[in-house]
Amino acid sequence: MVLGTLSATTLIADEAHAQASGGDQRIAFDIPAQPLDAALTAYFRATGVQLLYDSALTAGRRSGEVRGNFTPREALRLLLRGTGLIARYSRSNAAILTSPEAREAAPLVPLGRIVVREQVAPPPRFTMVQRLAFYGQLARELQAHLRSDPRTNRLTFSVRASIEIAPGGKLERVQIEQGQDSRIRQLITEVLTGKVVTPPPDGIAQPLIVALKGKHGAQD
Hints:
Elements: E1 9-14, E2 27-31, H1 36-47, E3 50-54, H2 55-58, E4 66-70, H3 72-80, E5 86-91, E6 94-98, E7 114-118, H4 128-148, E8 157-165, E9 171-178, H5 182-192, E10 208-214
Parallel strand pairs: 1-10, 3-6, 3-7
Antiparallel strand pairs: 1-7, 2-4, 5-6, 8-9, 8-10
């Protein structure tokens, strides 16, 4: 994630299926008050609820504390308390975070479980739905590459990678920024480097910061 005048995207793709969707099931939360971006990542890991938001909205904001057993919607309301932001849902496990006065509230498209943080150079060239469609496609392609390779299809991992996609879609740069251990980071780098994915549309700057999770022995 790059803030400031650069634009970037953070995508969290859980290739082992997230723990829950945004229904009425209560989940145990232990999310302290902290920078809002970090709190939203922790919320995603606990719920699997898809979120899309502009990084300019979350920069400098702090979350509310969420401790105890709540439904995902209850927890998100508590997390956003005092931030001035709201969640607009199109279905139980997908929401756009926005300000109450924002007019863009188009429905989300069906995707895998992702979280996207982005800052697109103004004026925005694509609607949230169009951007979500690209991120969902990218998530599916990255997951497919990791699942199809015997080096990574049974790994348990949670890593963040900076990737750059060539005009033809080749992953020409993959740099793991954080992860569980050096061996896993190396394997993921080797598997993804050189693979072909959908290139980002014009107006979405690179590198893309991608957070990936995998669970040992996960099956579709």
